[in-house]
Design brief:
The protein is an alpha/beta fold. Helix content is about 30%, strand content about 15%. Helix 9 (about 420-445) packs parallel to helix 11 (about 485-495). It catalyses: Hydrolysis of (1->4)-alpha-D-glucosidic linkages in polysaccharides so as to remove successive maltose units from the non-reducing ends of the chains.
Length: about 600
């Protein structure tokens, strides 16, 4: 039956006004009250307390609240017309509670052995058991979303050879047995072109691709122009090519630089895109001598439209073009289904604003990364072009890596981020990032003509519930509360027919508020904003999980984001890529759960208790 529920939202021991929602659920008896720490985007989760149990027995950080009554409200919408989706499964990490209002046993609605009657000293364990019995959304007959699995970062070793091929083959066969569509692999610049410029070693990748093709799997290939190591989930070390590092030793301004002058060797600064600093080549220029290369291709991002004998691309283009020629047969037979273009740290379109190796810890706001000589020169030139040279300086009051927004003059409410100077600086900072993506994708489109290309955008969800969105601003996403910073990125991708690949689709806002209440994070709100930014301009949207996940709780969240129930146009993700193939995933129980998730992503029917 459909029942209305009255909610009191509690956060940090403060009560707020009730929020009324309704949804269809068959087995929770009348009189149940949901008391949550926070609700965001209509998604909620919690734990269950026994009838008559004092709220003081609830998990930590829950404010006591009185019982609320049921309301007869049949609509399925929140105030303002927002759709309230079905309840999601509950997680061990969530410290919320659902309190039953009054003892209904005398009315015969709850039996003495009802699963709703939990022992207060064992709430956490029994919540998990109950969560798996809760009504799940059925995805049978929904659109088919291909599922890929990322291969280990070191599947190709330092010598350019395939590592442990026998073990990998068995793992790939197992993935094939549960109908996984394909795998994703990083093609590391630091491995393939390590010895010398334009000397490429594709041997290990050819061996891998042949195995994947024999097993009738597909390939998503990442052009990884960044260093591996030092980030979350990095368990190997793959530096940039040796010859690039030698150049950096004599000219460290080729790297991103913070206010203290610390260089980040993870990837090359956006400031050298058009500078001849890589042994006579730029990062993104190439000497075109053929009119045919430019047929149907006009590039407007630089100062003029380019023609024959003008420079378009060098280092990145040479690499991408070499790959396309080397693996032509895999493109022609459809084994390679997509090329993801690395555009920055971790392969993402962003600045390296939160590097752990420089002391950043979650949920610090990060720092602006534009203190290398080339980006400082770009900022000064932009200010002069604006007619106000005094604007050409980086903010001095923006805090440090682990600052919080309210501690800084720039990011605090009413801070400099929203005055004329702040708007100029942030506009320049984000434009340089988007222009870089525009330039590299233009050339990727030329190198991989006719193939699907994609770009990855990171999910910087902390401080999303503040006015300035400080962590996003330092990463290059100009997305304060009064501006949509992802629409320009989506429009740029639209121009190149590129897919937007976004992270953190498995994260819940409630969990973030419990584990890091000071972070004011909202991953669900961010995901929804980016989904709509892409879909509003008909850009295909793909995604991946930000952190490892192995249980049904996280998979259900991914499914809800992949196929939104409330979208009137039935829009959905184009693909999903799972992070990552490892021994934990291959555990019997975990692998069974993952197989069930794949079936549901494919729109197949699965038993609820499967």
């Amino acid at each position: 039956m459909s029942n209305g529920l009255a909610f009191i939202i509690t956060h940090e021991n403060k009560l707020t006004l009730p929020l009324f929602v309704s949804f269809s659920i068959s087995f929770i008896p009348r009189g149940v009250v949901f008391v949550c720490n926070r609700i965001s985007m209509g998604f909620y989760s919690g734990a269950i307390l026994p009838a008559g149990c004092p709220l003081a027995a609830a998990p930590p950080r829950l404010s006591p609240a009185g019982a609320l009554r049921f309301l007869d409200r049949p609509s399925g919408r929140l105030g303002g017309g927002a759709f309230a989706p079905p309840p999601v499964s509950y997680t061990r990490r969530c410290r919320t509670a659902i309190a039953m209002a009054g003892d209904k046993r005398s009315e015969g609605e709850i039996s003495g052995d009802s699963p709703l009657l939990l022992n207060s000293d064992d709430v956490e364990k029994q919540v998990i058991v109950l969560a798996r019995k809760m009504e799940e959304r059925c995805f049978a007959g929904t659109p088919y979303i291909p599922v890929y699995v990322m291969l280990p970062l070191d599947v190709i070793n330092d010598h350019g050879k395939l590592a442990n091929p026998e073990i990998l083959i068995e793992q790939l066969r197992a993935l094939k047995s549960i109908k996984v569509d394909g795998v994703m692999v990083d093609c590391w610049w630091g491995i393939v072109e390590d010895s010398a410029p334009r000397v490429y070693n594709w041997d290990g990748y050819r061996h891998l691709f042949q195995i994947v093709r024999q097993l009738k799997l597909k390939l998503q290939v990442v052009m990884s122009f960044h260093e591996c190591g030092g980030n979350v989930g990095d368990d190997v070390w793959i530096p940039l090519p040796h010859w690039v590092i030698e150049i950096g030793n004599s000219n460290p301004d080729i790297y991103f630089t913070d206010r203290e002058g610390r260089r980040n060797t993870e990837c090359l600064s956006l400031g050298i895109d058009r500078k001849r600093v890589l042994r006579g080549r730029t990062a993104v220029e190439y000497l075109c001598t053929s009119e045919s290369l430019l047929e149907g291709f006009m590039f407007y991002n630089l100062d003029h439209t380019y023609g024959p004998n003008d420079r378009l691309l060098e280092v990145y283009f040479d690499y991408m073009r070499s790959f396309r020629v080397e693996f032509d047969e895999f493109f022609e037979d459809g084994t390679i289904s997509e090329i993801q273009i690395g555009l920055g740290p971790c392969g993402e379109l962003r600045y390296p604003s939160y590097p752990a190796k420089h002391g950043w810890k979650y949920p610090g706001i990060g720092e602006f990364q534009c203190y290398d000589a080339y980006l400082l020169q770009s900022l000064e030139e932009a200010a002069k072009a604006r007619g106000h040279p005094f604007l050409g300086k980086v903010p001095k009051n923006s805090g440090s890596y682990n600052s919080q927004p309210h501690e800084t003059g720039f990011f605090r409410d009413g801070g400099d981020y929203d005055n004329s100077y702040g708007r100029f600086f942030l506009g320049w900072y984000s434009k340089v990032l988007i222009d870089h993506g525009d330039l590299v994708l233009s050339l990727a489109k030329l190198a991989f003509e006719g193939s699907c290309i994609a770009a990855k955008i990171s999910g910087v969800h902390w401080w999303y519930k503040t006015a300035s969105h400080a962590a996003e601003l330092t990463a290059g996403f100009y997305n304060p509360c009064n501006r949509d910073g992802y629409a320009p990125i989506a429009s740029m991708l639209k121009k190149h027919g590129a897919t937007l690949n976004f992270t953190c689709v498995e994260l819940r806002t409630l969990d973030q508020h419990v584990d890091f209440p000071e972070a004011m994070a909202d991953p669900e709100g961010l995901v929804w904003q980016v989904l709509n930014a892409a879909w509003d301009v008909s850009v295909p949207m793909a995604s991946e999980n930000a952190l490892p996940c192995y249980d049904r709780v996280d998979y259900n969240k991914i499914l809800d984001n992949a196929k939104p129930l409330s979208d009137p146009d039935g829009r959905h993700l184009s693909t999903f890529t799972y992070l990552r193939l490892n021994p934990v995933l291959m555990n019997t129980h975990n692998f069974k759960e993952f197989g069930r998730f794949v079936q549901r992503m494919h729109g197949e029917w699965v038993p609820i208790a499967g």
